[in-house]
What does this fold into?
Amino acid sequence: MSYMERTYYGVLVVTIACFGWYFVDVFTGVDIATADIGEFTSRIWIMFGIYIVLVIVTAVATHFADSGADDEFDERDSQIDMYAERICSYFQAGALLGILALVMYQFSSFVIAHVVLGAIVLTTVLGLGVRLYLYRRGV
Amino acid sequence: MVKPTAITNNIRTLRFMADEMTQADLAEEVGLTRQTIIAIEQGRYSPSLEAAFKIAQALNTGLDDVFQYSPKAPGK
It folds into this structure.
């Protein structure tokens, strides 16, 4: 398994754990109809900070986990990246349309902010999933 | 699960004929990762033209001896 592939596995686990925990925690203890996004702002920023640190730690850890493996990024990695980014861009376009609909139908800031956050997380998970699938299946 | 490419190759055989060159040695010589060489050998990845020429050069042979194009149906 290449460095990139190992890193993608690690980041996928970190993403699902970090944001999965947040969404479960928020949506099991909050009344969506009356929730105020202002109460979650600092929590969301802190979570993003923790997530970025965990991603960096994962990338460094996967490097040292097998120091004999290739750390280079070659043409196959680029091609897999390109396919994954294309699929993610379709998903993002759909998500943007959905968010536009939420704004037009005057949903609360809490709902809109969490749909945006959910779209970011799902795009990341989708991108990583597609990359890992293509590494196994081939391009 | 694995999607085979239309390009087959003899890299594995040619590596052994070239002083039992390892996948890592070939990867280093052509500037690819070992995983990419493995994917090419297994037919899971079709290399770029430049990479194909580099592989042939590293194995001291011609491009035709390394890679063969085997389309499933004529015209495809």
